[in-house]
Write a structure and sequence with these properties.
alpha+beta; 2 domains; five-stranded antiparallel sheet; OB fold (Dihydrolipoamide Acetyltransferase, E2P)
């Protein structure tokens, strides 16, 4: 997780006595015969930057809309700070939502867009003006207050929408794909800005994204969804390093998966026979696995070493292949190795040398190897 200028975040989810700010309890949402959200249970704590991730159609935006009050659960309930939100309309909930499209009024200036939500509060003009100016300064747009949305860049429009969402000081801010309209470099820069703003205001952010890198960079915790269900909840490092299913391993980042069967183990290791790998795989002992149990070994591409000579004469966790494809990405290269049994294995290699010094190239015969503690054993 990015940490620049962001204060250390407590981890109340590790404290059994901590009280969650948001409780999503057995929430289900159906549209006719289609189930968009299926019996979801989540607890979110004050000050979290909580991410809902998953492929399109997994139910993450539907869940966010139910938090906002724009959609009602078919069953279950949502509680915010001990108040049941079942019959509470959106405008009376202690939440605000920042939409993917930003939904700025094109005929209004930046300051009028930001201050729009305060008009019905009956504030004195001087107080309203100060609240708007404070919000604009927070997002570093004080000098652009008189501009119209069409005179702003994509990143500036995003910050106007954020200021407008925060100006009423909600207890929870909901963000639907907040950075999707930005180009890659601006998105990375805005991630830092968003984290800094969240740390300043100290409120809970719940955001939806299909971008795994964005979720990893921004969030305190991630909930991975698929077909309306939450498959795993955890801190970014735990989700990445210790996925609990093939879907999570493959969706969050990139993973090479080898199907096999358990064939015993010793000295803290579990041995797996895999026809796909063509060698014996050895993994650190992780829980109880029965002999002959069907399993999958998940291995991240950056944890694989590539060499032109075998590393081990025993051949454990070592596969022979040929460089089938090679992609240069600047800071790293992506190798797709075709093994002698025909399986494609993806490898990431940091480019510590200039391209003229590459030692491994197209069609080279290579050996892939990795440590037993680099892989994860999955049951499903």
């Amino acid at each position: 997780m990015l940490t620049a200028q962001v204060k250390a975040v407590d981890k109340p989810w590790l404290d059994p006595t901590a009280k969650p700010q948001i409780v999503i309890e057995n929430v289900r949402k159906t549209f006719g015969a289609f189930t968009a959200v299926d019996n979801v249970c989540l607890q979110i704590y004050t000050g979290e930057m909580f991410a809902l991730v998953g492929a399109s159609g997994c139910g993450k935006t539907t869940l966010l809309r139910m938090l906002a009050g724009f959609s009602h659960p078919s069953s279950g309930r949502i509680v915010i700070e001990d108040a049941d939100m079942t019959d509470v309309p959106p405008y009376e909930r202690p939440v605000n939502m920042m939409f993917q499209s930003y939904a700025l009024f094109p005929h209004m200036t930046v300051e009028h867009n930001v201050g729009y939500g305060l008009r019905r509060l009956g504030l004195e003009r001087s107080i309203l003006h100060k609240r708007v100016q404070d919000a604009l300064e927070m997002v570093q747009l004080g000098d652009l207050a008189k501009r119209k949305p069409h005179q702003l860049s994509g990143g500036q429009r995003q910050r106007v929408a954020l200021a407008r969402a925060l100006i009423r000081r909600p207890k929870v801010l909901l963000l639907d794909e907040p950075l999707s309209a930005l180009d890659k470099k601006l998105r990375e820069q805005t991630q830092f800005e968003l984290m800094n703003i969240q740390a300043q205001v100290g409120i809970t952010f719940v955001f939806v994204t299909h971008d795994q890198d964005e979720a990893m960079a921004l969030s305190t915790r991630i909930a991975v969804m698929d077909h309306g269900c939450v498959l795993q909840v955890g801190e970014p490092a735990a989700i990445y390093e210790f996925p609990r299913s093939r879907f999570v391993a493959d969706f969050v980042g990139t993973a090479n998966l080898f199907e096999g069967t358990v064939v015993g183990g010793d000295l803290g290791f579990i041995n797996v026979h895999s026809n796909e790998a063509g060698c014996r795989l050895q993994v650190d002992r992780q829980g109880d696995f029965a002999d002959q149990q069907r399993v999958w070994v998940a291995l991240r591409p950056e944890k694989i070493r590539v060499s032109k000579t075998p590393v081990s004469a025993e051949g454990i966790n070592q596969i022979k292949g040929v460089v089938w494809e090679l992609g240069y990405l600047g800071n790293r290269s992506t190798y797709r190795i075709k093994t002698t049994l025909g399986k494609i294995v993806t490898v990431f290699s940091q480019n510590e040398r200039r391209t003229s010094d590459w030692t491994i190239d197209w069609s080279d015969e290579v050996y892939l190897s990795w440590a037993a503690n680099s892989a994860v054993l999955l049951r499903e």
